[in-house]
Design goal:
Layout (H helix, E strand, L loop, with lengths): L9 H10 L9 E9 L3 E5 L6 E4 L20 E10 L4 E5 L1 H17 L4 E9 L2 E6 L2 E6 L15 E10 L4 E5 H8 L9 E10 L2 E6 L2 E6 L11 H4 L5 E10 L4 E5 L4
Pfam family, one: S1
Protein name: Ribosomal protein S1
GO molecular function: mRNA binding; structural constituent of ribosome
Length: 261
């Protein structure tokens, strides 16, 4: 319940609050009506004998410098009780935590149903991308970025899947590779013959770019003479014809072979 509808007025809500006796506890989610907007907090009536205080830092998921323009007088909102201490005349409330609980519930649903969803890029760092989903920050490690572009603009939409999450530690690890692979699975079918571009030459094999996705051509799957060095045989930018022999949708990995072509 984010806002009241037009037929449910301040008087209606106040009458309901006064009609019933409620027991409040820290950790409860309650309905309250905004009756005063101050510089550093919002005053809320939740039907207790004390005024509820909604601090500035508990209004939005992101830091705000003033009371959100989305908060209006006489508006009915759902709030989380951070502290209910009638002995010390204190009721501390939070909008942010209600939103956070709903977002984490959505995250669990997305993970369980294996859904691809859209995030917004906030910033880049050496390790990967920091993104945002419904006010919650997540991280895409470099190894799970489809195409690493240092000139990518902020607020760009990035489609991802969830790798791991922990609500208690506010941890959300995401993969663009897994989402891309699932969305374009017809380009990465097992047994398909395709062409890759050499991006990296290692002692154990080659990393190839195939349709913007990096995959491994292991040394055991390369046609070469027994004592022939990979660095002598291949250069970065070379085109290599390969077969797709492994696709892992859960980890966003693909592997190739040159044999039996």
């Amino acid at each position: 319940m984010e806002t009241s509808n037009s037929s449910f007025t301040y008087k209606n809500f106040t009458a309901v609050l006064k009609k019933y006796q409620y027991n409040f506890n820290t950790g409860d989610i309650v309905a309250g009506i905004i009756f005063s907007i101050e510089n550093k907090c919002v005053l809320v009536d939740i039907g207790a004998n004390l005024v509820g205080h909604l601090p500035l830092e508990e209004i939005g998921m992101n830091k705000v410098d003033s009371v959100s323009k989305d908060i209006q007088l006489n508006e009915i909102r759902e709030l989380y009780i951070i502290l209910f201490d009638p002995l010390n005349d204190q009721i501390i409330l939070s909008l942010k935590r209600v939103h956070g609980l709903k977002t984490w519930k959505r995250i669990r649903q997305i993970y369980e149903e294996n859904i691809i969803f859209q995030t917004q890029l906030i910033k880049l760092n050496k390790g990967g991308y920091v993104v945002e989903f419904e006010g919650l920050k997540g991280f895409i490690p470099k190894s799970h970025i489809v195409y690493n572009n240092n000139n990518i603009s902020s607020n760009k939409a990035i489609y991802v899947k969830i790798l791991e999450f922990n609500e208690i530690s506010n941890y959300l690890l995401l993969s663009e590779r897994c989402a891309y692979l699932q969305q374009n699975i017809n380009m990465f079918r097992l047994g398909m013959i395709t062409e890759g571009i050499v991006e990296s030459v290692q002692n154990y094999g080659l990393f190839l770019n195939v349709q913007n996705l990096k995959g491994l051509l292991h040394i055991s799957e390369i046609q070469k003479e027994p004592n022939e060095s990979l660095k002598d045989k291949f250069n970065i930018g070379n085109k290599v014809r390969v077969m797709i022999i492994h696709v892992d949708l859960a980890k966003g990995r693909i592997a190739f072979s040159q044999k039996n072509l």
